[in-house]
């Protein structure tokens, strides 16, 4: 057993579970931040496509 675990008095399992929970939280926060940005980008692409289509219909 390493000195860090002996000195802190924490079990290896607790450290692994805590680290996994922190990583999962970071992933969830990133996903919550990226989803609205991705939806906004898709909306802009959709608006651009509709405008091009309307412009093409007007010209002929």
Overview of the structural elements:
It is built from two helices and no strands. The chain is an all-alpha fold and 60 residues long. It has one domain. 90% of the residues lie in helices and 0% in strands.
Topology (elements, then pairings):
Elements: H1 3-8, H2 12-59
Key structural traits:
60 residues, rod-shaped, 90% helix, mainly alpha, 0% strand
Give a nutshell description of this structure:
With 60 residues, the protein is mostly helical. It has one domain.
Beta-strand percent range: under 5%
Overall geometry comes to rod-shaped
Determine the fraction of residues in helical runs and give it as a percent range.
over 70%
The counted number of beta strands is: 0
Could you describe the largest sheet, including whether it forms a barrel? none
What is the straight-line distance between the termini? 77 Å
Report the average pLDDT across residues.
88
> H/E order of the elements?
HH
Task: Return the domain count.
Answer: 1
Parts with pLDDT < 50 across at least 5 consecutive residues: none
Which structural category do the helix and sheet elements fall into?
mainly alpha
Q: Please state the CA-atom Rg, rounded to the nearest Å.
A: 25 Å
Number of helices: 2
């Amino acid at each position: 057993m390493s000195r860090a675990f002996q000195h802190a008095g924490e079990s290896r399992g607790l450290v692994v579970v805590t680290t996994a929970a922190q990583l999962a939280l970071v992933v969830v926060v990133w996903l919550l931040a990226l989803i609205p940005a991705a939806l906004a980008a898709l909306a802009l692409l959709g608006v651009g496509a509709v405008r091009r289509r309307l412009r093409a219909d007007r010209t002929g």
